Records
---
Amino acid sequence: MSIETLSLASLMPPIALSVTATLALVLSDQRGFRPGRYLCKPLAAIAFVWLALNLGAEASTYGNWLLAGLIFCMVGDLFLMPDNEHSFLVGLTAFLCGHLLFAVAFLQLPLNVTGLAVSAIPVACLLLMVCRWLLPHVERAMKLPVIAYIFVISAMLMCAGLTAGHAIAPVAIVGAWGFALSDLAVARGQFVAPESKTSGLWGTPLYFASQMLLAASVALA
């Protein structure tokens, strides 16, 4: 499917929902308005699944794997709404599965080893930086899940790099890196500075914009 053949009628509703729900979610979180969080976060998550479906995700192997990843991310969003460790761990597991499914989706496309090589240095730098910054703040019981999550994110970014040269590459790589970087905001809020609300100002919009980009990539598969 090409972008030119897509009608605005199929693209605009999920995009409008994403923008509106994300902005309302950021505002609700900054003001500590819990009902707004419980309403807007699911709506923003529904928007990226809706966009992928509107773009025909079920029509390709890539699209099916990516859609599965988006659904797991939506589940992760729901479990990250409450402020307790059990829900956070379930949400972390759902997002881990989402990253893995995105990696598998990228592997369905023609692979470019040069892209993998180019990705290796920035991914290694991110991996080392996050481990040095984050792990000292993580309690012992959560260290193993967090380390596993970090390595899965790194693998997903490497797989995104393998798409280099394909029409999907710019959207997939930017979306994958945006998703990974938005996780830093979640980690900061959970482990490093739980009383601070500043991470959500950039992390929340970056996360949902990245998911919308990944959803949009099915149009280029």
Note: The CA atoms of residues 134 and 171 lie 28 Å apart.
---
Amino acid sequence: MKPLRIFRHVMCEPPGYLCTYLQRHDIDFEVICLDEGLPVPTDLNNVSGLIFMGGAGSVNEPKDWITQELALIRQADTQAIPMLGICFGAQLISKALGGSVCEGSELEIGWHNVQSVREVGHTATGTSTEKKAWLTGLPENFIAFQWHAHTLTVPPGATQLWRSDCCEQQGFAKDKVLGMQFHLEVNAESILDLTHRYASDLSRVTHCSQSVEQINENIQQRVDKLHDVADQIYHRWLSVAGIISLDTGNTEWLSK
């Protein structure tokens, strides 16, 4: 059984609940802690998929590890290897596959409603068939946790899946690749850590950037609901990727 390879960029944005989900379903994975100076492995023969977590800063910074990850994503795309990107990770995938990343008009921080983009219109890309394959059975709207200053564009050939009032681009898919601007993997402890480490981001409260008090209100209840959504979206990605069976929900490894 080939493991999923997870790239961690900063200690305070760990895989969190994603690891809990994978362990619960007996899916092997390994975590590459780039924040601890580990090199970016380029061998893709022994993985079933790649997962890129959140991080600080911009994917446009000329750092060696960012350049290496962008090259790895392009290589994986040519080999049709499944990929999942979360926040900074989704921005990496967007940039690597021909999209762009820039600073947003304002910070989006806290608990915000995310809406499915189910129809093809002037604000969306992709086809109704592609959207249906990804969104059928998933909630039309859900509350997700956000913490980002940058926004992405949907890369060529990909399909926009979600949006929010504060950020038009919340997620996209292309073949076996899924990028999400929002966080499903956080728990109460990691959210508390973020509010401590990046307290300066919370100095100005707006419609899109919540206060510490707003973020912490009913936090465990919110996290539990978030993880219910995570279960559905993680399962959908793993199913589209051919790693588990969509119909049964069992972890039948279809790609070895």
Note: The helical segments are 17-24, 64-78, 88-96, 128-135, 188-197, 212-216, 219-240.
